[in-house]
Batch of 2 targets.
Target 1
Amino acid sequence: MKRRILLVDDEANVRKALSTSLRKAGYETKEAASGEEALAQLEEYQPQVMLLDLRMPQLDGMETLRRLKQRKGPAPSVVMMTAYGSANDVMEAMRLGAFDYVQKPFDLTQVKQVVAKAMQQPDSGEEDGSMHPSPEEKTDRPGFLVGLSPAMQEVYKLVGKVSMSRATVLIQGESGTGKELIARAIHTNSPRAEQPLIPVNCGAIPEKLLESELFGYEKGAFTGAVARKQGLFEAADGGTLFLDEVGELTPSLQVKLLRVLQERTIVRLGGVDPIPVDVRIIAATNRDLRERIRQELFREDLYYRLNVVPIQMPPLRERKEDIPLLIRHFLAKYGRETGKEGCYLSPASVEILHAYDWPGNVRQLENTIERAVVLASGPAILPEHVQAFLEELQAEPEAEKSGIRFEDRPMKDIIQEVEKEAITRALQREKGNRLRTAKRLGISRSALLYKMDMYEIDVSEE
């Protein structure tokens, strides 16, 4: 059996490199320089896999994929390629039925691994409910997720794949990693996008009040219930209910939620008649639910009902390559809000932010940038503007929820350690050259030498 691959890219050198590598691996390849040419070759060539560039003139990769999936009959597994992808590009490609998504410049070994997996897929022309989006679906939604690290790419792929289904999703991760943003991305990319998305913080509302808020109540159900009230399950009918901090639910509410997931009906407080609801549940937690199950604080059967599609949000310290993107995003956001659109971070401030471990994750970084923009008297955001807020965040409750504790030392010591690491990293990048390092950090050479002496930093010049 032939293992055919169609390589679609407007750059000839990219097609040649891929073709040479894949032919050596035993595949048959054919090249197309445009989306139009690729679609024209499909019927005659009938490839099992298509490597498709996202950015091409005229018919781009996304529109090519869209037209490909609207065709009748067998279709190849599509692997998207781009050097300029965004979070929305990844999610949109996966939502439209792409098998995977790789970024340029790519590792040819990685490409061959992805192709091998794609070759194992069943005929992608078969109906599966997610391969043929209807024409009225929106495909130009605004981007609101920032970060293109490998860890976040995997999250975006899951969001794109799961958005078209009604499967229950459990988003897990430390506080501040952006779990609600992922829930909103799933809803926004789903057929329920025009219906409500209702978020509920299960840990912030007392049990009795939360029960009445979720399920509603009949007139006379309790003192003060002077009229019937719909609950949030009914209000979200046809849409999505986002249950944040679901690990904080009490045992009785866990039982009621399990019943909703099993029967797709609710009963109002004081009522007897079941009311059908069409609600997609997306839950999130920063708790280790398996540990809570062992402690008999969370029902195992509910866990499996919620954990149909798990999404694990990486902490910021594990995707530090996203920090520059996040910094630019938050600078632009708060620069506009405060009328300081020309503000920027000094190189020394950037080094400090990159060296910090961010126990409060993206939310802590955002708060730090917002405060720094407000405090800065001029366009430059200096280390003292950044450090002032990091010190106040030492006892931040959200950071404590993440399960990571600050060391029991004065914050001054912690900041000095961060500064020492930033200077050491800068020296290593500049191969010990003091003048270039000082310029990178935005300080004078004498100030650098003073800091090196104070912190006993010894990096020899190469």
Target 2
Amino acid sequence: MQQQNESNRGFSPFQFQPIEQTLQTFQWFSMMRANQPVYHDEQSHLWHVFRYEDVTKVVTDYSHFSSESIPGFSENSFLNGTVVAKDPPDHRKLRNLVNQAFTPRAVNHLSGRVTEIAQELIDGIKPAGTMDVISDIAFPFPAKVIAELLGVPDKDWDIFRRWASGGEGVGSEVSTEDNTAQGQQSMEENMYDFFSRLLAERRESPREDLISSLSVAEIDGERLSERELVSFCILLLAAGQETTKNLIANAMYLFTEYPEVAERLRQEPALMPAAIEEILRFLPPVWFTIRRATEDVQIGGQTIPANSIVMAWNSSANRDAAQFPDPDTFNIQRDPNRHLTFGHGIHFCIGAPLARLEGKVILPMLLEQLKDIKRVPDVPINVRAGIVYVIQSLPVTFSH
């Protein structure tokens, strides 16, 4: 009975809470991996999976753990019908579309413009000697990059920015408040109309942007439907923006928590790619993945009944000592570092290549151009903890 009481003190998804409280969740993960690695919460009827090996199975084995027909994830949300909420064979067609958008060539083609966007934002905050990492850098940077990738006209930036802000974690939770649900539906309808119009314009006057490519896209000789194309654009806005925003925010939090690491990266910028992987492992932007058991399935010595909803905690798997020696140490030279932050298998995060590129561009620039970065004292740091892990505000000071 004590174990169950301890289990119920664990993570409370979709709540705002101090960062210290959220970080204590890693202690809960450790206890659960040791004592109840596959745990059924009788109150919520959810199954929770904590160990690296078991989490990998859940996110990889789509024949037993489906992405379809999950309330609030692949049903009743903007994710419905998108690549992240489809199983094979339908998944393959949509994933091929994703691959067209995120080929290494397509992503690297953006690197010059990504650098320009990063420099514009840094130039804007330099004179003040202070900034809020979230509102001044972490949010606008990936939003502007996604707008650039899609080919959103400059005149539409303000509305695109509001959608990116309102889409924070969109689809990752289900509100019980009618007005919130209605607002969400209205926003998604507006986005649908916007991207439908943009696709039609590009069919008439193509440009060198992703929207133009999508407007004539074919997969296996089959044209994609208007809904599939527009849903993909909305998914890019949400997934491509959110992952990078949280990566940058978490990186800057860790650089202020471990200033010796920040200084080392200034001296040895070649370590940044490995540092980004450790940031993704140590404090991941995405904390768990949701699946539905397609049949009774054995995992971790437990039988999960068919149609049960399973939460696979990649944030716990990333701290599993069976996979990561000394897992609670922030080690920017960790090798190997097979973290599960971006998932695994056919549903590997669509935004991962872009998030890594953006991190490798802007984080060295921030460390090189802003010296002595420190958090503003006595300002509490709050996070919204759900599928995505979102620091709400991170005010810092610096010199240059």
